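Lab notebook, bench 4. We co-purified these components, and the gel suggests they stay together. Before we commit to crystallization screens, I want a quick structural picture of the whole thing.
Request: model the full complex, all chains together.
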Amino acid sequence: MQGSIAVLTVTGLLMAAVMSERNEAMEELRETEFTLRSANTERKRSFEELLEREAALRSVAEAIPQLVWSTNAEGVLEYCNSRCCEYTGLTQKELSGLCWESVVHPEDKLQSRGKWMRSLESGDVYECEYRLQRGSDKTYRWFLSRGVPLRDANGQVLKWFGTCTDIHDQKQQEEVLRRTEKLAATGRLAATIAHEINNPLAAVSNLLYLLKRDPTLLPTARDYVKLADAELLRVTHIARQTLMFYRDSTAPMPLDITEVVDGVLALYGQKLKLSKVTIERRYECRISIRTVPGEIRQVISNLVVNAIEAMTGGGKIVVHVREGRSWRKPEVKGVRICICDDGPGIAHEHLQEIFEPFFTTKGEKGTGLGLWVTQGLIVKNGGSTRVRSRTSGTNTGSIFSVFLPLEMDASLRRHQASA
Amino acid sequence: MSRSRRSLAFAQLHLTTHRTWMKRVMMFVLVTAVYAVAAILTLRFGKVEGSASPLWPPTGIGLAALVLLGWDMAPAIFFGSMLAGAATNAISMSLLGISFANLLEGLAGYCLLLLVGNFSPGLRRVRDVSMLLLLGAIGGGLVGATVGTATMYFTGRIASAVVFENWLAWWVGDALGVMVVGSAVMVLASHPKTKVLRKHYVELATIAVLLMSSSYIVFARSTGFMRPVSYVVFACVVWSALRFQQLGAVLAGMCATAVAVGAALVHLESSLTVPLLE
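Here is the predicted assembly.
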């Protein structure tokens, strides 16, 4: 009996213990399964989030104006946004590998490749400025390319991400600013010289006056003195005109256009003589317009100089001033100044580009800024410009027509005042 | 801290300590009483004339008290044993020796469990059941039976011819006491808030009825053609253990044991159909 009781009790307890252990194991298994399922769900969610984030990043990469690219650790292109393909006119497959170098300006290839190789070796940030060829018109534009490495926990470079930002306009503006600064310095120098020679000129003028009044002076000598006085007067006039360029007010004021034209023509009188260019003035009206004198003087000066330089073997410039209406807004009255020359004319294909900065047909002599500045000043004063030119036939030449309104637009005035 | 507050804190600490001590003393008294009552009842109703009791529940109670409440309950075993002996016989050297043997038995089982370590009285692991069987029941019982039988022999209470028989009966009775009663006390104390669900009431009743009736048939009226019924007892114990786990196992074991011991004691003098040491 005791054996049976012992066996019964022990069996029962062992069964219960086995059940408890099994239940605990099941519970642990359930917990593990739950943990695994949670981890799996979490992993799935993370993966989906990752996909969403990647899609968002791709959208951002597609939306921004920069060319976006990524390469592997060896520098082989893996991704570029559609802007890259649009700009270069190449597919992503064509751009991969080293084919992208085919769109880099030949002069910049060596520098950009060297910097890129150095960055790949050192893992430093890549930064380089180079010109990339635009697929649509095969022109080159300046780009600032920047690439940063993506590293793993051990610091090993996994990928490179970068952008190419179009800095062409910025570079051109910098160049314009640089040249403008140079011109301004030259202007200041000229004004200083003009100012400094004014006093000796006055002294010489007084001396010539006294000489003229001398009764003992021989008639021949008197003629020479008169000639010298006339030349001195011209020098004085030139010096005054030069100073006026520099000291002109920037505020709009009533201005007689014909006076400005006369002043400019007087300034370039010697140049006209040397170039064997004659001037024909056709002033149909004497209208006073309200504008910034210095700027209008600059406009007419640029146009006259261009006309003189266009006629290498001499010729004739006609300056026509008359009343007119705006081409765009016929209700706006103003004055129209036409400067016509009978030079060789401007080629048709260049007519679209002559107002672009740095475009010049004068070679090393020209800066390519004159007409660009002229256009800017005319627009600033509420006016507009038209050009007609003929390069073939008997009557070749160019006509630059400038329309200036009687009054500047209120908004333009406010803008100028604030500036 | 102000003086009054400090005094109050000290008083509270003193009160807490005092309460803890009071609690321990009360537990000690309770263990002594339970041990003594269990021993008296076993000696009065479960003692077979001329032999040791087939089941000695006080051993299980003593070991459970040590495991659950700590070693400082050990003297309660001694005093409980002394009280029970004094209630049934006069105080003598043999009673002192037997009480000492019971004390040693409990301490031996407890120390063995403690030495091997990581024993859990909830008996949720096979390891715990095995430890209780091998160390608590067999190991502790061995010490108690040896010391107790030696005492009885040297005080002249048993003859040398029955020393081994007495030693064996003592050992098996104590081991059964640990396995049946001790495990039950430990499990009940470790699962105080275990509740049987309403939907399991019918199942519980079915197991109880089947177990008790089959135990009665097997242990009280067992004849040749009734032998297959013994499997029902096993089935019920297994069923109970699987459904109600430790609680079910110990309760089923206790029920079957109660019926078996009762039946054995009732029929012992007349026919003794089931031998005590089977």
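Chain A touches chain B through 21 residues (CB under 8 Å). Worth comparing against the SEC data before the next meeting. The longest strand of chain A covers residues 140-151.
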